[in-house]
Design brief:
The complex is a heterodimer of chains A (378) and B (135). Chain A is an alpha/beta fold and 378 residues long. Chain A is 33% helix and 17% strand. Chain B has 2 domains: 10-56, no CATH class; 58-135, OB fold (Dihydrolipoamide Acetyltransferase, E2P) (Beta Barrel), CATH 2.40.50. Chain B has one helix spanning 14-21, and strands at 26-30, 36-37, 52-56, 60-69, 80-87, 92-97, 112-120, 123-130. The chains are: A alpha/beta (378), B mainly beta (135).
């Protein structure tokens, strides 16, 4: 053991768009180059990588492109967007165990102009789809809506309740130049006028923005970050929770359909590691493929009680001036969907004091991907 | 006409689809400790046995949650009601509710259902109808 504490020393990203006009390898390379430079490192000092199991950019192709001569640690996270924060967990584990000195985390895709996640599956990606696609559960919107419906039924919610999150996300995005909804705030009426995706649960404005783009992070030890003059943000806690009986997308088989059990357990682990409580979190970055997942996570992480997220949002807690600003970049609904990785970038910016929507005095930021999460601090 | 994407049989779940062809709703049961499980797995998570057997379900259950499946840009030929059924035996299964108008202007949560089998162009799926007796 080296006794090192891991930090996020560098961040980098491309623009978030609907058509990048270039290869995913170029997107990964641009984001990686910028994250390494932002940390004050040279590519020759990078000795580890982490990406998603779903990422199509091979590690060897990337290091040849950006000029990293040697890797001694490569890892990939399981699952989809739920693994976003687990990339940081893996990188931090490598740094703190001495397996690597400087780990590049990257994720890049053309998820709007090429393979769109929101379209019906054309072949069952894994055997679990046998229990869904023959019955017409063939898009993420439908798959998730089957659990959201019970949540709405149980707590008497309508799509308008979800719309209030959607409005907050676009409000944050409207003042973030990186966001696809920059200078485009929406009203609740705009939300209610957008077309149904799964009636009466999800409208178009409840859905994340299928996007092209790349995000990268450079993770190293606090000591090395200081040596390189990086504006580093400490990783106070990181964890990723998988529960027996669960499935990344088909959350149908755990007892209580109105809770997010992985998130509940994750919150407990993270707070214990960081030695804080939910009240100490100043900003929450919450992975949202669809707006209702924010409700389930607000409850799972203890920011409000079971079934109370709708009132919590209605009372203004998560917007400007609220007690718990959520997704201050506009989130995946307002900024762009880079599989959750852009929310980590925003968490770093908030603690550096460089966010477009800076919250003054922020000390603890939770970045949750539902089943994986990190707490960043000052 | 409802078009169905056929399941892809593998070692672990072929018995289920073979059963459906014979109009049986099968639930996997551990041959050693009798634990029921669905979706199927190749080993009992309770006792570690690979003595995988199956039992025929009564086909009775309740709707936990439901949606109407209709893709906005590529409409399903016929909107289908997708349901998550809590079977009386204790396991859960995703299926469809048939013979009910696909409209969201109704409450289907907790309604009692009973299994039936429909052949969709060679793919036999377990489907459900509303039970005649409701709580």
């Amino acid at each position: 053991m080296s006794g090192a504490r891991a930090v996020i020393a560098g961040i980098g990203h491309t623009e978030f768009s609907q058509n990048s006009g270039r290869s995913t390898l170029q997107l990964a390379a641009e984001a990686s180059r910028d994250a390494i430079r932002d940390a004050g490192f040279s590519p020759t000092e990078v000795d580890g990588t982490v990406t998603f199991s779903m990422d199509t950019n091979d590690e060897l192709a990337l290091i040849r492109t950006i000029g990293v001569p040697m890797l001694r640690f490569c890892a990939r996270t399981r699952g989809g967007g739920g693994g976003a924060s687990a990339t940081v967990q893996l990188a931090a584990a490598a740094v703190e165990s001495g397996q690597a000195d400087a780990v590049l985390v990257y994720r890049a895709f053309n998820e709007r102009s090429a393979h769109r996640f929101g379209q019906p599956v054309q072949a069952n990606p894994d055997p679990a789809w046998n229990w869904a696609s023959p019955f017409s559960l063939n898009t993420p919107a439908k798959v998730y809506s089957l659990t959201f419906q019970r949540y709405m039924y149980e707590f008497g919610l309508t799509n308008e309740d979800f719309g209030r999150y959607s409005v907050v996300a676009r409000d944050w995005a409207s003042t973030n130049p990186n966001a696809q909804f920059y200078e485009r705030p929406i009203t609740l009426q705009d939300h209610q006028d957008s077309r149904w995706i799964v009636e009466p649960i999800l409208r178009k404005l409840d859905c994340c923005l299928e996007s092209d783009g790349g995000v990268a992070l450079l993770i190293t030890s606090a000591e090395r970050a200081v040596d390189h003059g990086a504006d580093a943000v400490p990783i106070l806690a990181s964890s990723a929770i998988q529960l027996e009986g669960g499935h990344e997308m088909f959350a149908y088989y755990h007892e209580d359909l109105c809770e997010y059990p992985e998130g509940r357990v994750l919150g407990e682990k993270l707070y214990r590691q960081a030695d804080i409580t939910a009240e100490d979190i100043d900003i929450a970055m919450i992975y949202e493929n669809f707006s209702p997942i924010v409700f389930l996570q607000l409850e799972a992480f203890g920011f409000c009680g079971r079934g109370e997220a709708s009132d919590f949002i209605k009372d203004g807690h998560i917007g400007r001036g609220g007690s718990l600003p959520v997704n201050t970049n506009g989130g995946l609904l307002g900024e762009g969907y880079i599989h959750g990785m852009n929310n980590i970038v925003e968490g770093v910016r908030q603690l550096r004091g460089t966010s477009a929507n800076q919250i003054s005095g922020a000390e603890h930021v939770l970045v949750s991907a539902g089943r994986s999460g990190i707490i960043l601090g000052r | 006409m409802t078009t169905v994407r056929p399941p892809i049989f593998d070692f672990d779940d072929a018995f289920f689809w073979e059963g459906a062809k014979k109009h049986k709703l099968l639930i996997q049961r551990c041959g050693d400790c009798d634990t029921l499980r669905h979706p199927p797995t190749p080993m009992c998570a309770t006792c570690g046995s690979t003595n995988n057997q199956a039992v025929e379900s009564s086909g009775n259950g309740s709707i936990l949650t439901w949606i109407i499946s209709q893709h906005p840009t590529e409409p399903d030929a016929q909107p289908r009601i997708v349901i998550l059924v809590q079977l009386d035996e204790g396991t859960r299964i995703v299926s469809n509710l048939v013979d009910v108008e696909p409209t969201h202007e109704q409450n289907l949560n907790d309604k009692r259902v009973v299994v039936c089998f429909i052949d969709y162009d060679g793919t036999v799926l377990p489907q459900f109808r509303l039970a005649t007796v409701q709580p």
